[in-house]
Specification:
There is one protein chain. A hairpin with a 5-residue loop joins strand 6 and strand 7. Helices cover 40% and strands 19% of the residues. The chain has 2 domains: 210 residues, Spore Coat Polysaccharide Biosynthesis Protein SpsA, Chain A (Alpha-Beta Complex); 68 residues, no CATH class. Helix 6 crosses helix 7 and helix 8 runs antiparallel to helix 9. It has 11 helices and 9 strands. The protein is of the alpha/beta class and 301 residues long. The longest helix is centred in the C-terminal third of the chain and has 19 residues. Strands 1, 2, 3, 4, 5, 6, 7, 8 and 9 form a 9-stranded mixed beta sheet that branches.
Length: 301
């Protein structure tokens, strides 16, 4: 079937039988209907595929494709495959256990089109929104994910090296962003984090302050909405540093001298230990959001 949709919703599934019906129902209720669903299953062993095939039979015009290679790649590489297979000008990541508000596609699509009118279609552009956090039974946990995590969504581009404030399922991005950010490097931390980093440094990001979906927090979340903890901080420093290294490898030629040195400083952080690492953080101002986060970084990284 020839793709004529203006929006493609990229859904990666994995053993999602418990949640899929509710998600798909929320997509059907979107006020903007010029969208198609592009799905990749990441090797499910439950009834996920049966649910998807039944939905396809009921809505044949809405499924742009179903990628079934049988491999379990994990979330970030599965979404990368979806972006690589996509064709629409506007793309939206979708998690199998969320519930979208009816206006989500319309608001994000129209905002992205306004951004393209302002900045041009060749610039990587991303729009993202706040989320409502709920538990497995949809009981309210937090009316604002951004407040819950103390996010500064207006942060400068340098902050994206260590702080990600863009949640994939709450984001929409254009073809220029897709072409520049993907395929995803293996050492990128997550698909949404890498995409936000690329758009912050080479394009534009706009935050919509109102929530546009229910973000379900449960034991099976890959990352979830829980605030970051001190344990594992050293591993996160390693991950930030590795991602900076691949960012430098892919985009170093596009950076000015000052920006190159900033990214290079973070890339070199994983080769230092103890006080040398702390001095390096202070000297190059490799800071996170908030005083407590930076104290933790200096004390426990």
């Amino acid at each position: 079937m020839m793709d004529t949709s203006r929006v493609q919703i990229l859904l990666s599934t994995w053993n999602g039988e418990r949640w899929l019906a509710e998600l798909l129902a929320s997509l059907e209720k979107q006020t903007f209907q010029d969208w198609q669903l592009l799905v990749r299953d990441d090797g499910s062993s439950d009834q996920t595929l049966r649910i998807l095939l039944k939905w396809q039979a009921a809505h044949p015009e809405k499924l742009a494709g179903l990628l079934l290679d049988g491999n379990h790649l994990g979330s970030k590489l599965s979404f990368s495959r979806l972006v690589e297979a996509s064709t629409a000008q506007c793309l939206m990541f979708c998690d199998q256990d969320d519930v979208w508000f009816p206006e989500k596609v319309e608001l994000q699509y129209t905002t992205l089109r306004r951004m393209e009118a302002q900045y041009g279609e060749d610039m990587p552009l991303l729009v993202h929104s706040d989320l409502v956090v709920v538990d497995e039974g949809r009981s309210l946990q937090a009316v604002s994910f951004w407040d819950y995590r103390n996010f500064d969504v207006m942060q400068r581009k340098q902050a994206y090296l260590l702080n990600n404030v863009v949640t994939g399922c709450a984001a929409a991005f254009n073809r220029a962003a897709a072409n520049m950010a993907f395929p995803l490097p293996l050492r990128a931390m997550e698909h949404d984090r890498w995409l936000a980093l690329v758009c912050a440094w080479f394009g534009q990001i706009q935050a919509l302050p109102h929530p546009l979906l229910l973000y379900r927090q449960h034991d099976h979340n890959l990352i979830g909405a829980e605030p970051a903890k001190l344990d594992g901080l050293s591993a996160r420093v390693e991950a930030w540093s590795q991602q900076a290294e691949v960012f430098l490898h892919r985009f170093g030629g596009r950076l000015n001298v000052q920006d190159y040195k900033q990214v290079e400083a973070l890339a070199g952080l994983r080769y230092l230990q103890g006080w040398r690492r702390r001095q390096h953080i202070l000297h190059h101002r490799l800071f996170k959001q908030g005083v407590l986060g930076n104290l933790a970084l200096l004390l426990f990284a």
